[in-house]
Write a structure and sequence with these properties.
With about 325 residues, this protein is mainly alpha-helical. It is built from 20 helices and no strands.
């Protein structure tokens, strides 16, 4: 294979892109790393090299590569989109968003820009939904795309957004249609359960969940939904067991930790509730709900000064929180 020989003058970009499409990032490195920066004359050189480094887990090198490429080719749409992906992988959400904004300004007008416009709308929808937790914005961008351009997510992103928007009846009908083709699909079965929870059909939901097989029970969502169901059906002990199991299975899910704490509080187990809410602060250090409930736990555990500290901290981060204001005022009055 002569592609790695830096003495050969031919352009390696097309071969590198082929290897990238064939999921061979190591060969991309063999092709492009020997080239000195001045030999990487096209945006494609920098794009393929940065993407290969990202796929191999070397985010630091990928970031340096894409930044160097953009210094030479600041009008390259695909380099900005690659920068977006590297930033997401690195947990740099603001940089990822800024990259999308830069890329948007480079989309050509008219039919020639249609393909990249579709790609941009999809990435923007994904960012809005998963990182900004903004299903309204996600839906606005998805609505600009035909169904075949809405990605290959499973369950479909459009379904996930509908559920997040509270369009449960519509989503339920669409999930049932999808289950006709793949009736044992755990993701779709659990999404159907999520729709039933949104419709507050608690008794039918419990029967439905209890009828699901082991493949669904391997997912934390199953235990979270069943715990919520039991909580609404006035079975607090079993609800706590299920909700805590969900939190153990996926300890980075803020909602699971908060709900596990609520279930413990319902049983008067305030020390246990406090443990879950403290863990919630490791996921979101400024979380309003966790801080308010930690203050509640401190009050129940006869520590009004501790409750004040949590409420004051909450108001530092959320100065308009009426709940925290009312609770603190009540404490100060007493």
């Amino acid at each position: 294979d002569r592609h790695g020989d830096p003495r050969l003058p031919w352009d390696r970009a097309a071969a590198a892109l082929h290897h990238l499409h064939q999921d061979r990032p190591a060969l991309v490195l063999a092709l492009l790393e020997p080239l000195p920066p001045e030999g990487r004359t096209q945006p494609l050189h920098w794009l393929c090299l940065a993407a290969a480094q990202r796929l191999l887990g070397d985010r630091t090198s990928a970031w340096r590569t894409v930044e160097a490429g953009l210094a030479r080719h600041p009008e390259a749409f695909r380099l900005w989109m690659e920068r977006h992906l590297i930033a997401l992988d690195s947990g740099e959400d603001e940089e990822a968003f800024q990259s999308l904004q830069k890329a948007e300004a480079l989309i050509p007008d008219g039919p020639e820009g249609e393909a990249v416009r579709r790609e941009w709308h999809l990435r923007r929808a994904e960012f809005a939904f998963w990182y900004d937790e903004d299903p309204e914005t996600a839906w606005a961008h998805l609505s600009a795309l035909p169904p075949e351009a809405q990605g290959d997510h499973h369950p479909p992103l459009s379904l996930q957004v509908r559920v997040a928007l509270g369009h449960y009846e519509q989503a339920y009908a669409l999930v049932k249609e999808a289950l006709a083709d793949t009736p044992a699909d755990p993701a779709l079965l659990l999404m159907q359960a999520d729709c039933m929870a949104g419709l507050e059909a608690w008794e039918p939901l419990l029967a439905y969940l209890d009828g699901l097989g082991e493949a669904c029970r391997e997912h934390s969502a199953f235990w979270h939904l069943r715990g919520l169901c039991r909580a609404h059906l006035a079975d607090p002990l079993k609800a706590r067991v299920d909700l805590e199991r969900a939190a153990r299975m996926e300890p980075s899910r803020l909602r699971y930790l908060l709900d596990a704490g609520h279930a413990c509080a319902e049983l008067g187990e305030w020390d246990r509730a406090e443990m879950h809410w403290r863990q919630a602060l490791t996921v979101d250090a400024q979380g309003e709900e966790a801080l308010i409930h930690l203050a509640e736990a401190r009050m129940e555990l006869a520590d009004p000064e501790g409750a004040r500290r949590y409420l004051r901290e909450c108001l530092i981060h959320h100065p308009d929180s009426a709940d925290a204001q009312d609770r603190l005022a009540s404490l100060e009055a007493n």
